[in-house]
Known about the structure:
Elements lengths: L2 H6 L8 H12 L1 H8 L4 H13 L5 H15 L9 H13 L1 H12 L5 H6 L4 H8 L4 H10 L2 H8 L4 H13 L2 E2 L1 H14 L9 E2 L3 H10 L2 H14 L1 H10 L11 H10 L2 H8 L4 H9 L3 H14 L4 H20 L14
Antiparallel strand pairs: 1-2
Amino acid sequence: MSENEAVSAPKPLDMSTVDQAAILLMTLGEADAAEVLKHMGPKEVQRVGAAMSHLSNIEQDQVHSVLANFMEQVRHLTGLGVGADNYIRSMLVTALGEDKANGLIDRILLGGNTSGLDTLKWMEARSIADVVRNEHPQIQAIVLAYLDPDQSAEVLSYFPDIVRLDIMMRISALDTVQPSALQELNDILEKQFSGNAGSQTTTMGGYKCAAEIMNNLDSSIEGELMEAIKEVDEDLGNQIQDLMFVFDNLRDVDDRGIQALLREVSSDLLIIALKGADTELQEKVFANMSKRAAELLRDDLEAKGPVKLSEVEGAQKEILVIARRMADAGEIVLGGGGEQML
């Protein structure tokens, strides 16, 4: 087997959960796979779709391994019939964590409906910006707090500096949103494209939400916006910055976490990202690879030559997206806080 084939067709034990999902869907056939994808969110569809397009040379034992693993997991699931509500709550909290699960639980179990807001998650960032551009800044803040941080960051990039500052200040001050307000916002959005909120307030916004959005902004916008926030409220700026996780903070991730992350990152992406990393972080990466792999990576780094800062920052942010996704899934633990990325 060639080196390229080894990369495109990983052994069962080395496969990521996304690759396993891709193989499983590919075995179902187009119609059944499409039915499964209908129940996934936009980010999940994008990730699984990308994995399906990149996988090749899948061996029969890999397919068997994936199917056996899937059957072993579903064999223990008994959420049908009595106690379904408790099962759903437990399953969602385990899978998503308390904060993320609460809103989804409300919509499923309390009959809530945020289809207007959910529609935005499938739209291009520029289109979302156009939809909310003329709304009150508080509405804009609630919308961006509701979206995923990377999508919110892209939407934010289409607003003028002064508007970005206002929205970020409002997101930081958000805590909960009354169901009537959320329903009103949903109705506004449904008039433009396609409601009944639950009985509980919805938690969104806050310092952590602001930090996650800031993490996903381009470095130039992030730096300017952070300076502007600190000019208005230095304590707020420091609190947001303390919650931000940047590439250099990977030094604080334990060895097991680094090894898990490296399995999800391509060599080409890692080389570009490490061109902008300090010696300490580079050595941590080398130490968590086999001796042969570390030697090859060192050679590739030296041979790479100069790389544009924008390319380095882009590669680092891609790796951070993977790291945060793995942290959300409980696969690794990220350390907190840090200075702005180089």
